[in-house]
Each structure stands twice: as structure tokens, then as C-alpha cells.
């Protein structure tokens, strides 16, 4: 069981909300009070009274032989989600390395695992993926990011941008599961979970020369996303493929170069 024992009002509410959202059993009490039977993890702030980092349960009051040891997770309010993830991982016996699986694409699926436990999952625009991954690995010792090799351009952009963490490129064949009724939209995230569990080849860069078809798809996206039916040229499409520009930035560059604005006729 998880015990929340803190006088920090903000930490208390943020942790309790996270635990309730995850459906995890827990109890709360004042710092320093006797811990209840079955306590496995205590969450507290740095300012709260100390709890024995590891030792037999303090609640039995008698023979403690064989009692489970107690782990203490210390966190500030800003670290509430991280604290809950760590506590849940301890509770489920999933202690281990933090591994992030990524199913690349224009909206990558991202799964964060600690040991065998999935502690967080996201699906975000490609432009937000690196920030999301860095945030999720910031406090983890020796984290590992595993990226599927399917969407070449987007995957290469992620590999090249994640220059401050260990990255493996994974063969993602067969990682997208069959989706039954009601599971639509979950495929990329579930594939990311499977990718996280597969060993890959360590890499620190990936250079891909975009094909004519890939460039055309980027140009088509620019027309679809523009407010004036504008299509960027091949040079700008190559910069988008290399991750130097987003489609929106390429459109702005195209307009500025032509001296036009959104009210002007479409320019190809």
C-alpha cells in the first residue's frame, strides 16, 4: 500500500489526484505517525519528518520478521507525477531502468516504462515529442529511448534531436496490435509500448535522403495546412524533411520570400 504522509498542501493534493486517476489504493496520514500494516511506499516532501528509508514495518509493534521493507519517495509538488510513477513501480515490483518507446510519425505515440511497468503514455505533435521525452527522462538515471524505424523522416528527426540521451533504433515490424471495438486511436501508443520492450541498435544520428514521394507528401501537407492554398517548393520541403523547419515555418518562409501574406492568391 502507498501512504501519503506530508504537511505540504500542494504536494498532498497533486499526489492524491494522481493516485485516484490511476485507481491505486492508498491512505493518508500525518508525517511521523505510526505507519499502518501493509505499508510498502511512503510519499513525503523534503520538509516532512523523516521516515526510515528502509526497514520493517513500524505498524506491527511486535514480531516484524518477514515484514515488507518500506521505500520512501521524497518529492516536491512540482514532482508529484514522477513521485507517483516511482511509488507505483515499487509497489508492482517493477523497479528498473526507465525506457521510453516511440512510434514515430506526425503524431508519435510515446510510452514510458520503468522496469516492466508502463508509467506514462502520450500522443503529441512531432514538434512536441522531443520536449516530452526529455521531460519524462530528466530525473531518471541512465534512461534509454527506443525509436521505431518505420516513419523514416520523423524517426530520423527524433534520433538527431535526442543528442543527450541513449537512443536505440528498433525494428518495429509487428509492433502495432490489432485494435478491437472501442480501441481506435490507441494503436500508436500501444506500438510504442511494444517498441520499448524490444532491443535495438544504438545510434546517435540518422541521415535519410527523402524520396520524391516523401517530398511530395510534405508539399501536400503544406497546401492542406496553409490558409491560402499555398504549396512550398522542393527546397523548403527538404528542410522540413531534415527537421530544420516545421511545415508552418516553411510556409512563413515561402510567404516572406514572395513578399505575400495570407490574403494573397495561392502560390505554387
Automatic annotation (TrEMBL):
Top-rank lineage group of the source organism: Archaea
Protein name in UniProt: Uncharacterized protein
Native source organism of the sequence: Halobellus litoreus
Amino acid at each position: 500500500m502507498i501512504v501519503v504522509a506530508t504537511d505540504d498542501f500542494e504536494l498532498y493534493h497533486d499526489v492524491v489526484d494522481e493516485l485516484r486517476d490511476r485507481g491505486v489504493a492508498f491512505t493518508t496520514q500525518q508525517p511521523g505517525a505510526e505507519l499502518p500494516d501493509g505499508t510498502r511506499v511512503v510519499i513525503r516532501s523534503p520538509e516532512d519528518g523523516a521516515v526510515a528509508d528502509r526497514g520493517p514495518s513500524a505498524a506491527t509493534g511486535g514480531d516484524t520478521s518477514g515484514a515488507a521493507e518500506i521505500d520512501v519517495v521524497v518529492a516536491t509538488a512540482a514532482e508529484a507525477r514522477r513521485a507517483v510513477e516511482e511509488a507505483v513501480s515499487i509497489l508492482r515490483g517493477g523497479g528498473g531502468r526507465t525506457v521510453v518507446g516511440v512510434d514515430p510519425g506526425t503524431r508519435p505515440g510515446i510510452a514510458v516504462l520503468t522496469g516492466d511497468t508502463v508509467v506514462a503514455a502520450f500522443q503529441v505533435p512531432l514538434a512536441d515529442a522531443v520536449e516530452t521525452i526529455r521531460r519524462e527522462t530528466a530525473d531518471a538515471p541512465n534512461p534509454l529511448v527506443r525509436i521505431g524505424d518505420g516513419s523514416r523522416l520523423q524517426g530520423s528527426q527524433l534520433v538527431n534531436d535526442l543528442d543527450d540521451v541513449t537512443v536505440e533504433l528498433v525494428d518495429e515490424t509487428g509492433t502495432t496490435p490489432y485494435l478491437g471495438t472501442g480501441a481506435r486511436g490507441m494503436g500508436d501508443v500501444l506500438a510504442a509500448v511494444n517498441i520499448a520492450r524490444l532491443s535495438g541498435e544504438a545510434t546517435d544520428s540518422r541521415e535519410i535522403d527523402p524520396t520524391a514521394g516523401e517530398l511530395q507528401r510534405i508539399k501536400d501537407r503544406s497546401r492542406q495546412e496553409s490558409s491560402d492554398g499555398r504549396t512550398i517548393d522542393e527546397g523548403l520541403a527538404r528542410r522540413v524533411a531534415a527537421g530544420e523547419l516545421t511545415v508552418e515555418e516553411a510556409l512563413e518562409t515561402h510567404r516572406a520570400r514572395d513578399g505575400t501574406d495570407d490574403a494573397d492568391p495561392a502560390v505554387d
